[in-house]
Write a structure and sequence with these properties.
6-stranded mixed β-sheet, 15 helices, 526 residues, 16% strand, alpha/beta, elongated, 12 strands
């Protein structure tokens, strides 16, 4: 079959650059603190419109502009920790990935209509391929380099939208795919401009119905857990000046109103103890006394050292027994909790890298505690953004999640609200309640449907005593989420490569085939 002509750009290059700038700004507004979730569709749409018909270099340019605009705004909170250089560095590498990952999207727009120049291929197959390649880019950026940075996935923008429940079926990656697919389908419906033929609206309407009408996967009620939690608001930032055990004392003071309450467990946040209770006998005795005082176990967190390694460790602490179970953070933050390839980065920025003295070792133990027969899933701080950490907790038997975080380095920024949105999405995705507790806020208890049960504002010390619902049963997202990612990521890339090969082969064949005698016209080769 002869190849059709390559599609022309919808926008001239200068307009595509402006659309990419607008798209990056608008997409950021879909996430907290603004959180206008419908704008995710607008931001994605502007990005796609700018890529349609673009050359490789044109796609690289508009993708770079879109990525730079979005990330420089979205993660501006990094400047609160180490200043401008880390902000530019992280935003820069994410921008490069966004730009390079825009090329296969543009190729999908060029190749599929050439190989399959039918109306329905444009309305059905093209949006699905574009969405798959977009999702593959998200998955790559969330896993490399080192442990990646899966912070700004499109699906995560929907934590408070009526679409969040779809994540319980297909995970966050699947939700990203469906949002981009709907947006691309709506664009294609507008491009073909056959509005009188209602059939042409079916693909976009079908995806809209899938997003809006599929209910959350039901998990089974399994009782409740009476959880006390304390937000000490102590000086827990990396560079905060403090006296010895000042953070521990702040946590004790915030916990005091719970001393005479009936608790099943007392939860403290990440970094709620500023000494190692596994090595410091005074700290261990303090935790023993606290556990005895409330007549309940504790779930606490501190930096711990075992042998030559230092870990970011959560502990299930029982009076008289100490840490009966531990979980070490699975994915310490590169350039925050450790410096990978320190010799290389110190050569580039010795003063800046020299500020980061801690070197946490990645944990290998399960993110799960058995609390007197009740399964508790765990995620320490940024581990909440890693799918496998969350899913493995559910598969191990978690009936509730307890997320411990320390947002003190990012006080008064959007960071804690963005992270809270991720916690909310995890509740919906797994059909489990989440207790998301920060040293400095914002802390909340979130129901399995994503609604807020209890909460504490940022920047204030306080406590919560909450009857937290428990759930049993695994959502499809937990069971098949990794397969969904494999299909959407590698499957979409494989389809694109196969499409490119088919276009190249057909192009060579057409170039060798003379035009019919008398036409005076030959088919153009790609």
């Amino acid at each position: 079959m002869p190849l059709a002509a390559a599609p022309r750009p919808l926008l001239p290059l200068w307009a595509a650059v402006l659309a990419s700038i607008a798209g990056g700004v608008v997409l950021d507004l879909a996430y907290p603190s603004v959180g206008w979730w419908p704008l995710a569709f607008v931001g994605v749409g502007l990005s796609l419109v700018a890529l349609i018909g673009r050359s490789v270099w044109g796609a690289l340019l508009v993708g770079f502009v879109f990525g730079a605009t979005f990330y420089l705004i979205h993660i501006m909170w990094i400047t609160r920790y180490l200043g401008l250089v880390p902000w530019f560095a992280l935003a820069g590498i994410e921008t490069v990935f966004m730009a390079v990952g825009s090329i296969p999207i543009a190729l999908a727009y060029r190749w599929l209509p050439r190989r399959f120049p039918s109306l329905w291929a444009s309305l059905v197959a093209l949006p699905l391929l574009v969405a798959g390649v977009w999702t593959a880019r998200e998955l790559f950026m969330g896993s490399w380099p080192y442990t990646g940075f899966p912070w700004a996935r499109i699906g995560m923008s929907q934590s408070e939208s009526p679409l969040a429940h779809v994540a319980s079926w297909v995970g966050v990656a699947g939700l990203s795919f469906l949002i981009v697919a709907f947006t691309a389908a709506a664009i294609e419906w507008g491009r073909v401009a056959r509005f009188r033929d209602v059939r042409t609206a079916i693909p976009a309407l079908g995806l809209a119905a899938l997003l809006l009408l599929v209910p959350a996967f039901p998990t089974t009620p399994a009782g409740s857990l009476r959880v006390g939690s304390a937000q000490g608001n102590g000086p827990s930032g990396y560079f905060d000046p403090r006296q010895r055990n000042e953070v521990l004392d702040a946590q004790l003071e915030a916990s005091a109103p719970l001393f005479d309450e009936d608790l099943d467990v007392l939860l403290w946040p990440e970094g709620g103890i500023d000494s190692d209770p596994l090595a410091n006998e005074d700290t261990a005795r303090t935790l023993d006394a606290l556990s005895r005082r409330i007549d309940a176990p504790l779930i606490v967190n501190a930096a711990t050292t075992r042998g030559e390694d230092t870990f970011n460790t959560s502990m299930l602490w029982v009076a008289g027994e100490g840490a009966v179970q531990i979980h070490d953070k699975t994915n310490p933050v590169p350039m925050g909790e450790y410096v990978p390839d320190r010799w290389f980065y110190e050569a580039l920025a010795p003063d800046l890298i020299g500020l980061i003295q801690r070197e946490y070792t990645p944990g290998t133990n399960a993110p799960f505690f058995d609390l007197d027969g009740i399964g508790v899933g765990l995620a320490i701080c940024f581990d909440v953004i890693y799918d496998e950490v969350i899913w493995s907790g559910a598969r191990d038997g978690a009936q509730v999640y307890m997320f411990q975080t320390n947002n003190a380095d990012f006080r008064d920024t959007d960071e804690n609200l963005q992270q809270l949105a991720f916690a909310r999405m995890r509740a919906v995705e797994t059909g489990r309640s989440v207790v998301n507790l920060s040293t400095v806020g914002t802390s909340q208890v979130i129901a399995p449907d994503g609604t807020t049960i209890d909460g504490l504002p940022a920047g204030e010390a306080g406590h919560m005593l909450t009857e937290v619902p428990l759930r049993a049963g695994l959502t499809p997202a937990v069971l098949i989420g990794s397969w969904v990612q494999l299909l959407l990521g590698w499957g979409s890339l494989a389809a694109l490569v196969a499409l490119g090969v088919a276009v190249a082969v057909s192009g060579r064949r057409d170039a060798k085939t003379p035009a019919p005698e008398g036409t005076g016209v030959a088919q153009a080769a790609d």
